Amino acid sequence: MLDRLPVEIVERIVAKIPDTDLIAASKVDRVWWQEVRREAYKRWKNYATTIGDVYCEIRALGKHYIKREIDWITFEDVNDLYKRWINRLTEDQLYIMEKMLRNGMVVDPQERETIEYALSEQRWGGDPWGLGVV
Fold first, then answer.
1. Which branch of life, at top level (predicted)?
2. CA dist., res. 47 & res. 75, Å (int)
3. What's the total number of domains in the chain?
């Protein structure tokens, strides 16, 4: 039954699947595989954009601290919150990237290298994106 749904319905279903179950849905058939791959790339990009936005917030917070516009306790609390947020987003992003790699959804050699490097950095406790916020 799932292999006979219109593509529009499959798109809407796939968009609601949580990250942890997303790749499993690609096993239904080729249409589902393509939709899951498209959705996984979309989430990958969204995570990257959000990580970049939070990183900009960290930098802006640092500038406020340097100008003495906020006290150090507030700075430390907010900065730690942002760092934990970036770490969580990075874990979620790398989860999707790893699943995509393991299921043949990444065909570009440069993307493969990026994923393998980021996963290696994460496993060894490094900063996969070189943001210096670990």
1. Eukaryota
2. 24
3. 1
